Amino acid sequence: MTYSVSEGLFVIFITLVGMGFLLGLTWKVPFQKIDYFLLAVTIICYVFDTIWWWFDLHFKWSDWYFTFHGHREQVTIFFIVAAISFCSLIVLRLKKMKKI
Predict the structure, then answer these.
(1) In degrees, to the nearest 5, what angle opens at C-alpha 44 toward C-alphas 42 and 46?
(2) Cβ–Cβ contacts within 10 Å for residue 11, how many?
(3) Of 2, 75, 79, 88, which has the maximum CB count within 10 A?
(4) Which alpha helices (H) appear in 1-100, and where do they start and end?
């Protein structure tokens, strides 16, 4: 699985825009400590995932390979943790937004 730098940077850009949009939907809800923690975990893991992609790092403990439409794809543990923490952040903020 290889991507050009421009493809990778485009994916990073689209992901950051999407994350910003979703956070923007819940902007009226004040941030609490758990929100800051989940956002920090998301950012740190996303940076590590980007470093893993940029330097083409592959370790048995960090990569999970799967086949999608006949193409071998790779997801790092950092991307999985970032996705889980960001989804948790959005769900918590949407629940708080319903209470307001």
Answers:
(1) 65
(2) 13
(3) 79
(4) 5-25, 33-54, 77-99
